[in-house]
Amino acid sequence: MKQLDRFLERVRQPAYTGENRCWPCTVLNLAIVAVLAAVLLLVDRLLALLVAVVGTLAVALRGYLLPGTPQIAPRLVDPLPVDFGHGYPGADGPVGGGSLGDAEDEAPADPDPEELLTALVEAGVLVPEGEDLLLDPEFADAWVERIERLRALSTDALATRAADAAAGDVESGAYNDRILIAGERDVWLRPAVAIAETAASETLADSGLDPSLAGPAAHPLRVFLPSCPACGGDVEETTIQNCCGGPGSVQANPEQPVLACVDCETVLFEFD
């Protein structure tokens, strides 16, 4: 029984099941299983039954059967005037968003944005220049160096480092193309975002910033990313449509302003 539980635990994907289940993915994959079973029914009833059972179990435990479904199914239904609620709960970051201390204690309030800004300026991380704020060159170099080291890690190792960078009692896990920082407030991160914020949090801590502010400050600091955490390419302000949607994008908000990589088109920050 324990072996079965361990097997199911390895197979199950919390990122795509339970409250996180994407119904377009589920419907698409169940339809594929039904079609395969119907075709095989003409050849071998036992094989058709086996495919139906295994396929349905796979969708139930993993959220999908066909590789790439999380990227395909939402795009198929996005043009429809119905909200299927697909996607991940919450936005990318902050790494410190899952930090909460003991479960019985009241969760600490998020730091005030002005407090974060003042702390970053006082620590010399951001340098005022006229009406603008610029990233300190020395900090930028240290941040990029740490980003490059984190980029070389496996996804599981990156998830562990991201959890270490988050203050408080949290757990981490890697599920396909997302990293989960699980606390009282779960945070799902794309690997590129996890790299950027973990590197920023660690570098901020080294710069002398209050450790309680390092994690939360890493999120807004992404606006100043000097290069892409995923590939090292240049970053620019653009829109979802222009960076990765193309003409006639099916994105719900193709004009959403974002910070994205020029080379790999990874979205690194979504502006309000």
Model description:
This protein is of the alpha+beta class. The chain folds into three domains: 2-77, no CATH class; 95-222, no CATH class; 227-272, no CATH class. Helix content is 46%, strand content 13%. It has helices at residues 2-11, 23-41, 45-62, 69-77, 113-122, 137-151, 155-165, 191-206, 211-221, 240-245, and strands at 126-129, 132-135, 171-175, 178-182, 187-189, 235-239, 257-261, 267-270. The longest helix is centred in the first third of the chain and has 19 residues, at 23-41. The protein is elongated and about 75 Å long. Mean pLDDT is 76; it is low at 80-91, 97-108 and 246-251.
Number of domains: 3
How many strands appear in the DSSP assignment?
A: 8
Determine the structural class based on helices, strands and strand pairing: alpha+beta
Q: What's the arrangement of strands in the largest beta sheet?
A: 3-4-5
Count of discrete alpha- or pi-helical segments spanning 4 or more residues: 10
What proportion strand?
5-15%
Please tell me what the overall shape is.
Answer: elongated
Uncertain ranges: 80-91, 97-108, 246-251
